[in-house]
Amino acid sequence: MASAPQIVVKPGKLFIGGKWVDSASGKSFTTTNPATGETLTMLAEADERDAAAAVEAARRAYSSGPWAEMAAADRAKILWKIGDLVDKYNEELGTLETLDNGKPIFESRQVDMPMVAEVFRYYAGWATKIMGETVPVRGPFLNYTLREPLGVVAAITPWNFPLLLASWKIAPALAAGNTVILKPAQLTSLSALRLGEICQEAGLPDGVLNILTGAGSKLGRALVMNPEVDKVAFTGSTAVGQEIARGSAETLKQVTLELGGKSPNIVFADADLDAAVRGATIGIFYGKGEVCAAGSRLFVERKIKDAFMEKLIDRVKKMQPGDPMDPKTRFGSLVSEQQMQTVLGYIEKGKSDGAKLVAGGARAAVGNGKGCFVQPTVFDDVNNNMTIAREEIFGPVLATIAFDDVDDVVRQANDNQYGLAAAVWTRDIAKAHRVARRLQAGTVWVNTYNNYDPAASFGGYKKSGYGRELGAAALEHYTQLKSVWVNLS
Question: CB count, 10 Å around CB of 354?
């Protein structure tokens, strides 16, 4: 294993009301490097009492004090400063992310952290542009609208892009004037805690951002059921999202859910095959396949399937998992032993169901042999009804399915409970637009895959959730509209 940069991975406390505190129970838990199996540090394990304290601090910061009275332009300055500090501490943040998650340091430093900074700066620009309008109503009245913050937001984030997906929620929430309680995934909390320190350095008032570490089931339920929480923003599994939706009904709080995916990546015979092969590998193997929008179902037009698969298999067999701390590594460790066993179980299921394993399919030995590495895996001759084509694996496993024509592939692509993303590869731009319109997905890429930008909205159809993150659309989920009538007679 390459040696990690000299950073100190400190024991973690909870961040509540601008103070770093121990958990009410005094309990802690370990966070582990999945590439080596070694313990990184101990983190405070919050419970319902800590959740209640964080909600109280967030409510107090929202209702009184400097945040409630701060001008939008001053909120913008703080958000911009947070973005600048993320850039300043890029190496440290990227290292923490890779140690905690197992993703290549190249991805953490060159992709994830720069976009985190961009997201904060993008919403800094929006802070002064959230506004109402005047409405031409009947009668001697002036009617105008005010777009106001919701109040206290609970942001519950996953382990695959720990700081990036936290920024997708925190930045628009703060730009709109809300306060936030962040509950990062138990497996990957280190970068979130460092963000708390960065926010302090940027001048964010006490209580505006609070961070709770610990078991998601316990803390998530406490936040969802608390009547003082006005909105829950969640990214994670569909099953947990359904629990949050049910729990939120008790207090009728607003909810946005970015959930699972089984995204179709469609290659037509008239595509640039070399570009499509690269897109197929990026679509499923970027982030080790632990990506909600991963192109895990590869649809290839039958007439070019053999030629395409030859190119794809040759490319995949050259990909090997490696030390995540090595800047040359492009394929790292899965996040945990449990996730690795889940992925290996799906691989066995694919084989037993009759799919043809053409690449990978096993655990990989890297470094000390204790890491959670799985070979990039490709199945051919997959039926769209097989388990590996129906369920989200969340790992580096590609299911390849043949199709005959446009109607056939659209039908198969849409025949799934998920609708997060999709891609189309073709030189026929008219066909690309027609197919994109027919696909049931919140994002459709044409002749590319896995592109994101702070200005472009992201979210799903069907059981991939509801609501949108990023772009101007996200602000609608962190604000509420008030209509004011003034009698002018």
Answer: 11
